[in-house]
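Example record

One chain of 323 residues, shown exactly as stored in the release files.
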Amino acid sequence: MKTILITGGFGILGASLSNILYNKGYKIIIFDRSKKRKKLLKTYINSKIIRQHGDFTNIKQVKTIIRKNKINTIIHLGAITQVIEAYKEPYSAFKNNVTGTINILEAVREVNKKINIIFSSSDKAYGKMTKKSYTESNPLHGDYPYDVSKSAADLISQSYSKTYNLKIGIIRSGNIYGPADINMDRLIPGTIVKALKGEPVQIRTSGKLVRDYLFVDDVSNAYYKLLLYMNKNNNKKLFIYNLGSKFNFNSLEVVKRIYKIININLKPIILNKSSIEIIAQKLNYKKAVKDLKWKPITDFKIGMLKTIKWYKDNYNEFKHLKF
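Predicted structure tokens for this chain:
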């Protein structure tokens, strides 16, 4: 049995990916510092999955857990993931997203170079879109703290692969949505919970920012397919893939679709206060289709119905939140 360490395992992607990989027969160890998320997701994440409280910004902890559990693969999802949070606390964003990633890479370099690494990058690592879509060959040139942190961590991961011969996969994904996302600063969970409370969501931007939207289980399946593909290609060391979607919507359209599904008559409040976010993003994912035999299969409405159901079922956990 292969043992996989997943950093940030209590995040939306970590929770889905942990369950999917566990059901495929892998031994999964979640490495996450959030006790709050652990409590909420206790019944969502399979109880047989090992939870290890810790912080990947502490390289000694990373090395210890690798040695102790004889890790075969690390899927590094842990990060500061919010643009506004990174803008307000850039030191924390760079410490987590850049230094934290270096810790994972350096621990593998020092402990066991045979460990495979999959790093969760982002479409925002590309920076502003200059063509109709991003391809994997486009340069990485983020401007704002979050974007730069992902650009830097992505390039550093590539450097470790090319310099130290580590086998590393990099996934640059669009906006992920689905059950078990407890970050109310994100558009979709924030809109859903506000709507269930009968309140309109406040959109911090103009509402015109365009993104690819992917259901979380589709993204998890891409990570699984990349894991298999890396294991089959013994001579190749670096694997980079975009994960995009045909559901390329602006924020206001996403909110309206959620309101329609919930069947509530609300009008979102457009704050138009954020000027540090990329206006439009679109990922070309033909390479993932060709190599990984992957494509997103969940219709946006179906994915949203599953997502809304989870928040309805867990409404008591969110109804008292003020955001």
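Notes: The mean pLDDT is 95.
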